[in-house]
Design goal:
Elements (H helix, E strand, L loop, with lengths): L1 H34 L26 E6 L8 H5 L9 E7 L7 H15 L4 E6 L5 H11 L5 E5 L7 H9 L4 E6 L5 H5 L2 H12 L3 E5 L5 H4 L5 H6 L8 H28 L24 E7 L5 E7 L6 H15 L6 E7 L3 E2 L4 H7 L4 E7 L2 E5 L11 H9 L10 E11 L4
Parallel strand pairs: 2-5, 3-4, 3-5
Antiparallel strand pairs: 1-2, 1-6, 7-8, 7-9, 9-13, 10-13, 11-12, 11-13
Helix pairs in contact: 10-11
Length: about 425
């Protein structure tokens, strides 16, 4: 009888235990579903250009007109190859976009700088139909050429003297005539009287013309491709994977920095008894749940490090890692937190286990990750000791790796980071 009772009791204990486990599992999943904190399929290191807010790439075309003996061009590629356009050539006139954007600003800045290397320019004349964007052009001319004599000439289609006004400046020495006109759209050019004027005068004075672009001669080699492809050529196709991932992470941070910091701060300042605050998945917040690696360091008075922790799980969303680390710090740190550093990490790339090779193969912004059996630790670039020979000692101590550990059991990796800086 006693044996039968024990068997029944054992069965019920097992059943109750299983039931409790099922209930807990259901509770956890219901809670997680309510918060909807599942990570996205997308990874932050593969973010690339912002897809939700697709940037419209406008061609950046600047035309340079100069007086020079005729040079026979064999084909389109050599015609567009402008690597020697400005050497010992008399540049008389240029056409540049009137409104400078993030893409066109460096193109125009470099154009002015190149012209100043091989041409004496004592005065610049800005031809425009209105004064929009003129201030930016004046600033660049002052910076690159050192010009103070800059004249702004407003032209009007109805003014029949416009052509003579431009000719007056073209006939003077050391004056650079700059037409503020967009040449990136054939319809715009056809309907723009200033574009018509400079093209007509270029023909009248038999000026040679070259296209100038920041992409340099690569534009000729990829002339059959769209402009988004051309812009990507400014970053070498042979760029290492970690560097590409770092660029992608930077774009991700540029887009979502304010939201990431918002939820991080909210959860960091919550009392221990308060419920965690999760962002609902909307069009604006969806990409916060992209998968990624996160590392955070917390500092107290006199920049003393109080706590540092990383979330390296492959299936962890960026915002989930941030929130979990914020809650962890709020519970663990008793001293006032004065500042913190948040890092997003690229993937890990294996390193050859050799101290000299390790030092030589690492770039200044590389971090190191160590894995020894079940002991793991990382060190970001700004944590690296000044003496490279102390790097491994630092990692050994942080990970708790025995000094006599077999090197064959130790795996080292390098990675890059992007810091989410809090201006406040």
């Amino acid at each position: 009888m006693l044996t039968r009772t024990k068997q029944k009791l054992k069965k019920w204990i097992v059943r109750i235990s299983v039931l409790i486990a099922i209930i807990l599992l259901c509770f956890i999943n219901i809670r997680r579903l309510n918060n909807n904190i599942y990570s996205n399929y997308e990874r932050a290191v593969e973010y690339g250009r912002v897809s939700e807010n697709k940037e419209i790439i406008e061609p950046v075309i600047t035309a340079v007109f100069y007086s020079s003996p005729a040079i026979k061009k064999k084909n389109v590629s050599t015609y567009l190859d402008h690597s020697d356009n400005y050497k010992e050539q008399n540049v008389k006139m240029v056409a540049v976009p009137q409104i400078l954007t993030d893409n066109s600003f460096p193109v125009v800045e470099r154009l002015y700088a190149e012209i100043s290397k091989y041409n004496t320019v004592s005065k610049a004349v800005l031809l425009t139909e209105n004064t929009d964007g003129v201030t930016n052009h004046k600033k660049i001319l002052q910076k690159t050429i050192g010009l103070n004599d800059i004249e702004i000439v407003k032209l009007n289609e109805k003014d029949i003297s416009s052509e003579k006004t431009i000719e007056k400046y073209l006939q003077q020495k050391n004056i650079l005539v700059i037409a503020l006109v967009n040449l990136n759209n054939i319809n715009t050019i056809k309907n723009n009287f200033l574009a018509d004027e400079i093209m007509w005068l270029a023909q009248k004075y038999a000026y040679k013309m070259h296209v100038f672009d920041a992409i340099d001669t690569q534009i000729a080699k990829a002339a059959d491709k769209d402009y988004e492809t051309l812009f990507s050529l400014s970053v070498s196709k042979e760029e290492p994977l970690l560097k590409k991932q770092q660029h992608n992470l930077q774009r991700y941070v540029n887009q979502y920095k304010s939201l990431l910091l918002k939820y991080f701060k909210q959860n960091l300042s919550l009392g221990k008894e308060k419920e965690t605050i999760w962002p609902a998945k909307t069009v604006q917040t969806y990409r916060l749940y992209d998968r990624g690696f996160v590392y955070i360091r917390f500092f107290g008075e006199n920049k003393k490090e109080l706590f540092a922790r990383a979330k390296i799980g492959k299936n962890k969303g960026i915002i989930v890692a941030l929130v979990e680390l914020a809650r962890k710090a709020a519970h663990k740190i008793s001293q006032p937190i004065k500042s913190y550093k948040i890092y997003l990490l690229t993937d890990f790339e294996p390193l050859i286990w050799d101290e000299e090779s390790l030092i030589n193969d690492l770039e200044t912004d590389d971090g190191i990750y160590i894995n020894y059996i079940n002991k793991k630790a990382l060190m970001v670039a700004d944590e690296r000791p000044q003496n490279p020979h102390d790097w491994l000692k630092f990692l050994y101590t942080r990970a708790g790796v025995p000094s006599n550990a077999n090197k064959e059991d130790i795996k080292l990796f390098k990675f890059k980071t992007v810091e989410i800086e809090d201006e406040n």
